[in-house]
Structure formats: C-alpha cells, structure tokens
Prior knowledge:
The chain is mostly helical. It has 2 domains: 3-98 and 164-239, no CATH class; 100-160 and 243-307, no CATH class. Helices cover 64% and strands 4% of the residues. The protein contains 11 helices and 3 strands, in the order αβαβαβαααααααα. β2, α3 and β3 (92-96) form a beta-alpha-beta unit. The longest helix has 36 residues, at 272-307. This is ABCF5 protein. Keywords: Membrane, Transmembrane, Transmembrane helix. The chain crosses the membrane at residues 43-65, 92-117, 129-153, 280-307.
Amino acid sequence: IGLDACLSCLGEHWSGSGDMYGLSFRVRKYHSFLSHDWGTPGWKKLCALLLLFNLPPAAVFAILWSPKYFQRIWCGYELATFLRHPEKQKPVMLLPVAQGVMLALNGSVAVGIQMVTFSVTSELDASDAQILGIGSLLVACLVCLPTSCYIGIGLMKEIAELDSQLASFSIKKAQCFCCSHNHLHPETGKHLPCDRTLIYNMLHRWYGHDGEAEEENFEKFDMLVRTTLKSQIIRSADDAKLPFYSNFYLSLGILCPALVEAAREACTRSSFAEVLNVFLSYWFLVVVLVLVFFWLQAQFCVLGSILM
Length: 308
C-alpha cells in the first residue's frame, strides 16, 4: 500500500473500516513495513505515522505500538515473518501511538505561544489583543498542556512495563478476533475460520523440523521474541520515551512565521540597540520559552510516572 493511501482519510484505513484489500498491490520490494494491532484507534496511528514519515528517511520495520500490540496473534505472525530471515532484517523502530498524539498537543501549545506573541506585537486594539493573548494562553495551559502531560505520564509507564511484557511473550497466549467471538462474526453471525490454526501451521513450517513437537516450535519462536527482538525493541524504546528534539523541531517550524516577522521588523530598526531588543523580545524569548516548556514537561512526566 502506498504512503498516500496510508495517510489518507484521517486514519480510517487503520481502524479496519473500508476496503483495505482494494488498496493493496503486488511489489517486488517495500521500503517500510508497518506493524500494528487493530484494537488501537486509527487516528492515533495516523499521528504516529505523521511523526515517522517526517523523520530522516530510513527503511525500517516500524511497530505502531500500544500495550495491546504483543497480545494480538496477528501481530505475533508479523513478528514471525520479520524474524524468519535474520540476514534480511531491517532496523526495528518502536513508535508508540501515544507519542504522535503527544506531539500534536505540543504543537498546539506552540501555536498558543505564537498567538500570545502575535497579540503582544500586533497592531490590534488593546481589548482584542488581550482576548486573543489570554484566550490562547488559557487553551494552551489549561487544555493542551495537561492533556499532553497526562499522555506523557501514561507513555512512560507503558514503556516501563514493555520489558516484562516482552520477557513473558507467548504466542499461545495471544488473542485473536475469531476465537474471542467463538468463530462467529459478531454482526453477521457467519462462521469465521480459525486464524490461530493458520498461524500455528505457518510457525511450524517456518520454525519447526520433522519430528519436533508443536510446543517446541512455539517455544523456539517465543525465545526469539524474548531475546533477539527484545534487545532491539528496548533500544528503540529508549528513544521513544519523550522525544525532546522532535518536540523542539515541530514547535520551531510552527513558530517560524513569527520569527521571520521579527527578523523583518529588526531590519527596519536603525540602531543596534533596537535590533538587539527585537531579537531578545522575539527570537530569544520565544525559543527559550519553548525549550523550558518541553524540559519541564519531560521532568513532570518522569516524576508523574514514578509517583502514580
């Protein structure tokens, strides 16, 4: 499936609705493999994808991760496909879906800071400027900021539990849609073939040998996840906790119009002192505010995940 289709319809394709098979086509090779579970809302995955494809380009095995991921049997099947040929493996990138949502909220805070700056420096009436500035500040501080911190605390706690989740991974304990509904479609009542049987047969074919018991095949695959894959995922998880630089670059991009306007105004000033005053008032103050905000947010999330 092409990237344009992945990012279209505001994440509708990632929620399981619509004709997914109609979007697919055969290819000789692919750039990135996106692994996800269907239990996580599509809009969260869309936020994570917007982050992924605005990072430096790389061919990766990207896991759009939520705590449900390693509990789903089809996710286990995708991991089995990935681990099947070690010589062809691409780097693993763990991308928590909550991280994309958190970045979107942080971007809203940056927009609020920009609007406050605009209200102070614009030629609006005093009353209009106050309404715009105070309103933007209240939305940023009372809505976006607390929500972002709440999501960040949850993200820190979820990643802290990832190690034990991987250490106890078992494909036999993974859940699947058909078995959880007694192999009857919940809406139509039609019989559903068992996905578990299909996946177990493939695991035996890929990881088993003649004469081996089925349990040995499962244990062999489980150990690959608990050791080989676990080490790669944990390394990637360390970078996924609170991406300070991603937050900063996102906010800097949002604040660019205000900073460019400040540079234009500085060019109209005649003395060095006036230029310096504009620089300190706009560039330095805004950038420092953003940096301090994200640093405080990171500390608050770490502290909150420990105390809660």
